[in-house]
Every structure is written in C-alpha cells, then in structure tokens.
Amino acid sequence: MIYFIRHGQADYSEKDSKIYQGFGNHMAPLSPRGIQEIEETAADPRLHQAKLILSSPYVRALQSAAILSRRLQLPLQVETDLHEWLADKRYHYLSEEQAARHYKEFVTYKGFYPDKSEKNWESIPAMRQRVLHVLARCRSVSPIIVVCHGLLIQSLCGHHPQNGEIVEFSLSSDNMD
C-alpha cells in the first residue's frame, strides 16, 4: 500500500523578493496553516504501519515529509523524480506568463497532448511514468508514504487532493503499464 500525501499549504509571501522567482518558487516553505495540516495528517492511523517516507525535493513537500518523519519516527528518503509538474519538460526557465500559458494549455487538454502532437509541457502520462519508476524501485517496502504534489497524485489516482490529504494507492502489475 502507498499513501500519497499532498504537501501542506505553502507560504509564497517572499515570492517576489529574494530568489523565489522561476524555479526559486520551489523553495517556498510551509505556511503556519500548512504545518497544521500536516500535523493533523500525521495523526491518521493509516500511516502508523508505514515503513518509509519518500519525498519530493521541493521545500514545501520536504518540510511536510520532515514533520511526518518526526511524528511517525520513520526514515525519510528524497526522490528527485517526485518533483512538481514541469511547465517546460526541457527544464528551461520560463517567465511567469509563459509558464501560465503552458499550464492553461495543460488544463485545456486535460494533461494530454492534442492530436498526438508534442508539447513542451509535461503530460500526465509522462508524470505517471516518472512516479511509477520511483515506486517500482521501492516495491519491496510496504506500506510507504509518498509526499509530493497534487498533479503527480492526480496522474496516478485520477484525483487532485487538497493540501495534507491522504490518497491510498496500490501498486500492481495493472498500473505499472
């Protein structure tokens, strides 16, 4: 069993100062409300049998995972492939306007490239494969907690969770294809 948890609410108050622009947005920590969300999530009895926590490298997810690790006394492992959706899958820096256009297109096409065309943004199938690759490496450990981002969870489970929400997922040969 895998327990996906979307990170707590982030605090972007420093977004337009310091280095929190472009990829720097991923350095935003949890807000006080986000910390409270994850503290409440840690009390969920489903998590008490977990053996390992995997986390996205982005601060909001990593801070969420650290709270869970402390509260549940579980080892924490950072997995770089659990990063957020890519507005540009070539890892090019995009202006906020360009990234917003890519996201709007992603939403318009429901995460799938239209008419088998190729786009610069990351598709749902690509996100799904990225996450499944991480999970396949951890198959021998169960149950695990995976702290990451709403779109990643949605790519596997079809549901975009709220901050701190737990989404159960069973890894099987059916969803590994």
From TrEMBL:
<dbReference type="InterPro" id="IPR050275">
    <property type="entry name" value="PGM_Phosphatase"/>
</dbReference>
<dbReference type="Pfam" id="PF00300">
    <property type="entry name" value="His_Phos_1"/>
</dbReference>
<dbReference type="GO" id="GO:0016791">
    <property type="term" value="F:phosphatase activity"/>
</dbReference>
<dbReference type="GO" id="GO:0005737">
    <property type="term" value="C:cytoplasm"/>
</dbReference>
<dbReference type="InterPro" id="IPR013078">
    <property type="entry name" value="His_Pase_superF_clade-1"/>
</dbReference>
<protein>
    <submittedName>
        <fullName>Histidine phosphatase family protein</fullName>
    </submittedName>
</protein>
<dbReference type="InterPro" id="IPR029033">
    <property type="entry name" value="His_PPase_superfam"/>
</dbReference>
